[in-house]
Write a structure and sequence with these properties.
This protein has three helices and 21 strands. By secondary structure, the chain is an alpha+beta fold. The protein folds into three domains: 83 residues, conserved putative lor/sdh protein from methanococcus maripaludis s2 fold; 91 residues, Elongation Factor Tu (Ef-tu), domain 3, CATH 2.40.30.170; 135 residues, Beta Barrel (OB fold (Dihydrolipoamide Acetyltransferase, E2P)), CATH 2.40.50.100. The strands form four sheets. Strands 2-11-14-13-12-15 form a six-stranded antiparallel barrel. A four-stranded antiparallel beta sheet has the order 3-10-8-5, with no helix packed on it. Strands 7-6-4-9 form a four-stranded antiparallel beta sheet. Helix 2 runs antiparallel to helix 3. It starts with a helix and ends with a strand.
Length: 367
């Protein structure tokens, strides 16, 4: 028993050694295999340390400086006519609605003259009849030496005045019980000021019609930008939701006060071709061309900004990235005008530039 007890620790120690040896026998080959792999990986990293980038040529072109503004298409008030009744009366029937397109001569509204207007016409007729009979009476009396030539002149003047009064009544249409008002030209009904049954005074507004060709755009410009805008500047007008239908125009007027509704300054744009394709009330965007300059232009993706907001880009020289600080100018159609110490002979990195630093080795895509 004593002998057995002394040898038990040795047996356990021997088993532990054998287990450790077995573990080492399994781990060592794996360690040996991993060394070449890491070495090979290191070699690949050294060979492939350059960054794949996409480049584009640095170009110089004419760049437009523009100012964007929004507004709507309206009828030109200078080509809008007010339709009214020449005498007092009642609107019997309205035949058009606001916004309706009409042709020249189309019926707009029917109108019935007021009773007092008809009475005025009848009174003018009676005045002519009375003055005519009175003149004949004076002439007979003059032949009988019962009247003077002065009496005859007075009677003739009275008849002339009566005839003038009747002519004036006829020109106002007071002798016509009812009348249909018609469109003076092809156009759009921009306003209806009355409703059926209304009593309208003489000369009172009934409706307004604007010519189809008399369209203009009214844009709202920020007050601080108005100083850059002037009459005659070119403007490209497009519907807000359809930029494929531009209409050319030029600034016709720049207002000097702020519109209380929009809090902007109104700029009126005369549209070429009468604003073909535009509809009154259409919401539009206008690009006002402030001027044109020659500048280097790069894709917007080429320009990066650092933590301080300073702009820069990378050019490629001898297979390495060269960082160039730049100042950004006008942005148009995905391109931005830039200025700085740029080499026009070197390409500009437009993709992959986020991985670059000054001096980084690069591989240009497609080369």
């Amino acid at each position: 028993m004593t002998r057995t007890t002394r040898t038990t620790p040795n047996i356990r120690k021997t088993k532990s050694v054998r287990f450790a040896a077995a573990v080492l026998a399994l781990v060592c080959p794996l360690l040996l295999l991993s060394v070449p792999a890491r070495t090979a990986q290191g070699k690949d990293g050294q060979d492939g340390s350059s960054v794949l980038v996409k480049t584009a040529a640095l170009t110089r072109k004419s760049v437009e400086s523009t100012l964007s503004a929004y507004g709507q298409v309206l009828l030109d008030p200078r080509q809008t006519a007010a339709v009214s009744f020449p005498r007092k009366g009642t609107v019997e029937r309205l035949m058009v609605a606001q916004g309706q397109m009409v042709r020249k001569g189309a019926p707009l509204a029917s109108f019935r003259s007021a009773p007092e207007e008809l009475a005025a016409f009848r009174q003018a007729q009676l005045g002519v009849d009375y003055a005519g009979r009175d003149l004949e009476r004076v002439r007979r009396m003059l032949g009988q030496h019962l009247a003077t030539t002065a009496d005859l002149a007075t009677a003739e003047k009275t008849l002339e005045d009566a005839r003038s009064a009747l002519k004036a009544q006829r020109s106002r249409g007071t002798g016509t019980p009812s009348e249909v008002v018609r469109a003076p030209f092809d156009g759009i009904v921009s306003q209806v000021a009355v409703k059926q049954g209304d009593i309208v005074p003489a000369g009172g507004l009934v409706l307004q019609i604007g010519r189809n060709s008399g369209l203009r755009a009214v844009l709202g410009v920020e007050p601080e930008d108005v100083s850059m805008v002037a009459d005659g500047m070119e403007v490209r007008i497009t519907p807000v939701f359809d930029h494929d239908r531009p209409v050319e125009g030029r600034i016709a007027a720049v207002y000097g006060i702020i519109n209380p509704q929009t809090r902007l300054v109104d700029v009126v744009v005369a549209l070429s071709s009468g604003g073909a394709g535009m509809v009154p009330g259409m919401q539009v965007r206008g690009k006002i061309v402030l001027g044109t300059t020659r500048s280097f232009v790069v894709p917007r993706s080429a320009v990066l900004r650092d933590a301080d907001g300073k702009a820069g880009l990378f050019q490629v020289k001898d297979g390495h990235a060269v960082h160039v600080p730049v100042t950004c100018g006008v942005e148009t159609d995905g391109e931005v005008a830039v200025s700085g110490s740029l080499d026009p002979a070197l390409p500009v990195v437009v993709s992959g530039n986020y991985e670059l630093r000054d001096g980084t080795a690069v591989r240009e895509e497609g080369r």
